[in-house]
Specification:
There is one protein chain. The protein has two domains: about 190 residues, Alpha-Beta Plaits; about 140 residues, Four Helix Bundle (Hemerythrin (Met), subunit A), CATH 1.20.120. About 50% of the residues lie in helices and about 10% in strands. The chain is built from 13 helices and nine strands. It has a six-stranded mixed β-sheet, sandwiched between helices. Strands 5-4-9 form a three-stranded mixed β-sheet. The longest helix is centred in the middle third of the chain and has 36 residues.
């Protein structure tokens, strides 16, 4: 009996080993382990239960009712494979935490592992300088019409100190980046572009320092006030241009090194408007494309660019301009759906990706946003004024990459600019065309800034 049992056990063992070998060589089917369906997968693209995984078939071309799933929840709703898109925890120092997330400062410690850390250090210097410059701007505007010598002298001294501090911080960060440009490999040209942009901004700062040291700020105090505001404006434009370029560089490097899913979540939001910045927008779009959302859901996008906003900053000051941007960000978010992706794309530009919306629905939603901005009156002290926006609208196709989507939005925005501000253009799949839309009944409102 013992011999029979032993023979049977040996036979079963050999059978198991043979089946395992057959599976590995592809001659036998792999076993399927069924899992209990998760809550997020037991729904169609509008959140309705369908008793199984999300329907991954391409949309039929009919416009679906707007989804009400919040955007952050949508990132967890993976219609395909489960993706690990959680950020690595790469802490930064207290200054960065305060600037990037003022409500929840954290003890960050700069990680030198990645090249883009050097880019972030350059942005830190810019943000701190921008905050100091805004304080000087507010003080100068507060005494316009009755400028006094002491205020002018103090503002000149403060701006000189800020320029010298910023230049030292920028040069230190640029030196560290310069030493690591070789690590970019095929992206070395990008590193050289960043280097050139930093040199251009350094030249602007040095010019401002020279002007502050040698200009006459005593004989005509009102003229001195205006010259100081002009210098602040030039520095602001240079700072914003460099910031936008470096965000693009940051994303380019992250895509090249296949680390889009490792970008720290604290970097996703714009500290001024509290909505996603370009890093957050493109990271979210990258996640969606990994999940093939552009193939399983009907989506469209719109890019809004505020008209002549530089003149608003020049006339009313950077602080007032920032308050207007905050207000417009809130208006855009209020008009967008709960599942739509909303963010500050750059400077005075806002991007909205409309989920479960075809061309007609997207045009209507985008035009309602544009008309809402147009009908908002801003009140600054005793003066009232309006801000308008030019918009581009495109349909997202299953073959789109998120890079091709952004390129088409930019091209369509250029077309809208050519036909005049406060207008929208729609890309019909072949070329941009102007949008002629009715009055959608946007409400009139006043906002104090």
């Amino acid at each position: 009996m013992d011999f029979v049992l032993l023979t049977l056990m040996i036979g079963l063992t050999n059978l198991g080993l043979g089946y395992a070998a057959a599976v590995c060589l592809g001659y036998a089917p792999r076993p399927v382990w069924k899992q209990a369906p998760s809550h997020s997968s037991d729904c169609d693209c509008n959140g309705q239960e369908i008793g199984g995984a999300c329907d991954e078939t391409a949309w039929s071309g009919e416009e679906l009712p707007p989804a009400e799933t919040p955007i952050d929840e949508m990132l967890d709703d993976d219609p395909g494979q489960s993706l690990d898109i959680g950020p690595i925890y790469e802490p930064y120092d207290d200054d960065v935490a305060e600037l990037i997330n003022p409500d929840q400062p954290e003890a960050w410690d700069l990680n030198e592992k990645f090249v883009e850390t050097s880019i972030l250090k350059l942005n830190i210097a810019m943000m701190k300088s921008g905050r100091r410059a805004s304080e000087i701007d507010v003080r100068l505007r507060g005494v316009r019409g009755h400028s006094d010598a002491e205020t002018i002298r103090q503002c000149v001294a403060q701006l000189l100190e800020d320029c010298r501090t910023y230049l030292a911080e920028q040069n230190d960060a640029a030196d560290k980046f310069r030493s690591r440009v070789g690590e970019l490999g095929e992206l070395k040209d990008l590193g050289e572009e960043i280097e050139m942009a930093n040199l251009e901004q350094s030249a602007q700062i040095e010019t401002t320092i020279s002007n502050l040291e040698y200009m006459d700020f005593e004989s005509d105090l009102e003229a001195a006030n205006q010259r100081l505001l002009s210098e602040l404006g030039k520095l602001r434009v240079a700072r914003h241009h460099l910031r936008d370029n470096q965000e693009v560089a940051f994303l380019t490097i992250a895509r090249y090194e296949n680390r889009m899913d490792k970008i720290e979540a604290q970097l996703f939001n714009d500290p001024l408007t509290r909505i996603r910045n370009r890093i957050g927008l493109e990271t979210t779009l990258w996640q969606w494309w990994q999940q093939n959302r552009q193939q399983s859901r009907q989506m469209s996008a719109a890019l809004f660019d505020l008209d002549r906003f530089g003149g608003v900053n020049e006339q009313y000051g950077a602080l007032t301009g920032d308050r207007i941007l905050e207000a417009i960000a809130a208006l855009v978010q209020q008009q967008a759906g709960a599942s739509d992706l909303v963010g500050r794309f750059a400077g005075q530009r806002f991007l909205v990706v409309f989920c479960d919306a075809g061309p007609r629905a997207a045009i209507k939603s985008a035009e309602l946003i544009r008309q809402t901005i147009e009908r908002t009156t801003f009140v600054h002290q005793d003066e009232k004024f309006q801000v308008t926006a030019t918009a581009s609208i495109v349909e997202i196709t299953p073959d789109d990459s998120h890079e091709s989507l952004l390129a088409r939005l930019e091209a369509t925005l250029k077309h809208a600019r050519k036909i005049g501000g406060n207008r929208a253009s729609f890309h019909n799949g072949r070329e941009p065309e102007p949008v002629e839309s009715p009055n959608f009944g946007a409400e009139f409102s006043e906002i104090a800034v």
